[in-house]
Design a protein that fits this description.
Blueprint lengths: L1 E6 L9 H8 L7 E7 L19 E6 L10 H6 L6 E4 L4 E2 L4 H11 L4 E3 L2 E2 L18 E2 L6 H12 L16 E3 L1 E3 L1 E2 L5 E3 L19 H11 L4 E3 L7 E2 L18 H16 L4
Parallel strand pairs: 1-2, 1-4, 2-3, 6-13
Antiparallel strand pairs: 4-12, 5-14, 6-12, 7-11, 8-9, 10-13
Helix pairs in contact: 5-6
C-alpha cells in the first residue's frame, strides 16, 4: 500500500490545487492521499479554522499539535504504524511529474530498508566532517553549470514567463549524476519511507529546530539506523503559486533563520547521538 502524505498552512489553502491535482494524476497506484492539518498553528495564531477545499480522492486529517513542517509525515508514520505500507511525503507548493511516485516505488525494490529521495545534501555542508561510519557509495551531485537543459530552460522561462504566474518558474533539473547515500533528504523532491522508520521520540522536537523538517527527519532516520538513498537522473520539481506564501526558507522563527536552525539541528544530533561526526 502506498500513502502520500503532506501538510499545509492557512495562507496556502487556496493555492493547493496544482499540487493535489498532480498527485491524483500519478501513473503509480496511490492508495490514499492525506493532508494533515493541525487544530492550531504556531505561526498563524489568528487562523479562523476554515479548512481548504480539496478534490475527491484527497483526505483531510486533523491532528492535535502543530509539529511545523514535519507535520507532513510524522503523524502518518504513527497512524500507519504496524501497517505494511510505504509513505511518500511531499511539499504543498510543488508540481510533480506524472511518473514521480513510480520512480520511488521502482527504487524500493532494490533498497527495501532505506529512505529513498531524489534531492538531499551532506551534513558537513554545515561543518567539518570526516565522513566516518557512513554507508557507501555516496551520491554525486550534478553541478547546475553542467545541466545544459536546465540552463536552456532557465533562459526560456526568463524570456517567456508563463502567463499564469507573476514570478519566474525555475525549471526542473537533475540533482544527482550518481545514485548513492546522503545524510539528509530534501522534502521538496519527496521521500519514501516506512512507518517503522520513526518512533515516538521523533515527535519531541526542540525549540527552533521544529522549523527545519528535512534535517530533523533525516537525523531521526540516522538515529534509527535507516540510511537515505538518493536517486540519480531524477528531475526535481517546480514551484506552484503556493511557494510565494510564507516560505520557511525565508522566515525567521524564534530568532533563527533557516541556516541557523539547520546548524542547530545538526549540532543537536552530533552532541546528543554522536551522528554525522
Amino acid at each position: 500500500m502506498l500513502i502520500v502524505s503532506l501538510s499545509s498552512i492557512p495562507t496556502r489553502f487556496d493555492k493547493l490545487g496544482p499540487t493535489l491535482e498532480c498527485l491524483l494524476s500519478q501513473t503509480a497506484k496511490i492508495d490514499r492521499i492525506i493532508l494533515y492539518i493541525p487544530e492550531n498553528y504556531r505561526r498563524f495564531p489568528d487562523w479562523d479554522g476554515t479548512l481548504p477545499e480539496v478534490p475527491e480522492g484527497v483526505e483531510i486529517r486533523r491532528v492535535s499539535q502543530d509539529l511545523g513542517p514535519a507535520t507532513k509525515v510524522l503523524y502518518a508514520t504513527k497512524e500507519f504504524r504496524g501497517v505494511d505500507c510505504d509513505i511518500l511525503l511531499c511539499d504543498d507548493d510543488r508540481r510533480y511529474k506524472s511518473h514521480w511516485a513510480q520512480a520511488f516505488l521502482d527504487a524500493r525494490a532494490e533498497h527495501p530498508d532505506t529512505c529513498i529521495a531524489i534531492a538531499g545534501f551532506e551534513a558537513d555542508r554545515y561543518g567539518q566532517s570526516q565522513m566516518l561510519n557512513r554507508p557507501q557509495p555516496r551520491a554525486r551531485r550534478k553541478p547546475r553549470a553542467l545541466d545544459f537543459k536546465f540552463k536552456a530552460k532557465m533562459i526560456w522561462e526568463f524570456l517567456f514567463p508563463p502567463v499564469e504566474r507573476k514570478y519566474l518558474r525555475e525549471p526542473t533539473r537533475v540533482t544527482f549524476s550518481q545514485s548513492g547515500y546522503v545524510d539528509c533528504f530534501e522534502g521538496f523532491g519527496g521521500a519514501l519511507m516506512r512507518p517503522e522508520f520513526f518512533d515516538d521520540a521523533a515527535f519531541d522536537i526542540p525549540e527552533v529546530i521544529w522549523a527545519v523538517d528535512d534535517v530533523w527527519l533525516s537525523g531521526n532516520l540516522a538515529r534509527m539506523g535507516v540510511p537515505i538513498w538518493a536517486l540519480a537522473d531524477q528531475h526535481d520539481t517546480q514551484h506552484t503559486p503556493a511557494g510565494i506564501s510564507d516560505a520557511l526558507h525565508k522566515a525567521e522563527i524564534e530568532g533563527a533563520d533557516r541556516d541557523i536552525a539547520n546548524k542547530t539541528c545538526i549540532a543537536h544530533f552530533r552532541d546528543t547521538y554522536e551522528l554525522w561526526p
